Amino acid sequence: MRVHIDRDRCMGAGMCALTAPGVFTQDDDGLSEVLPGRADGNGDPLVREAVRACPVQAISLDEA
After folding, report:
1. CA distances from 14 to 3, 6, 25, 29, 63 (A)
2. Where does the 4Fe-4S ferredoxin-type domain lie (predicted)?
3. Which one, 7, 25, 32, 64, has the greatest CB density within 10 A?
4. The domain that contains 29 carries what CATH number?
5. Is the pTM of this model over 0.85?
6. 26-62, pLDDT tens digit by residue?
7. Is the dihedral of CA 24, 26, 32, 34 positive or negative?
8. Which run of H or of E encompasses 18?
9. Boundaries of domain holding 12
10. If DSSP codes are grouped into helix, strand and coil, which group holds residue 16?
11. Backbone phi, psi, residue 52, to 5°
């Protein structure tokens, strides 16, 4: 699984960082980003919940 954030769509609500803090953070502008080395989701079960929690659907998962 690969995690992707559409930074053009992200509005900085931070729901992903609150839901799965081991995978997501926010940059200095308040936009969400994947922590270094965590783009594979690291098997964190909360990643899928973070995708659902995003109010603008800026996060996607590539299951390949």
Report:
1. 16, 14, 8, 12, 23
2. 1-29
3. 32
4. 3.30.70.20
5. yes
6. 999 999 999 999 888 777 889 999 999 999 999 999 8
7. negative
8. helix 15-19
9. 2-62
10. helix
11. -65, -30
Give Dmax (Cα) for the chain: 31
Amino acid making up residue 31: L
3-state secondary structure 44-61: CCHHHHHHHHCCCCCEEE
Single-letter amino acid code for the residue at 9: R
Torsion angle of the four alpha carbons 19, 39, 41, 51, in this order, in degrees rounded to the nearest 10 = 40
Alpha-carbon dihedral 29, 1, 52, 5, rounded to 10 degrees: 20
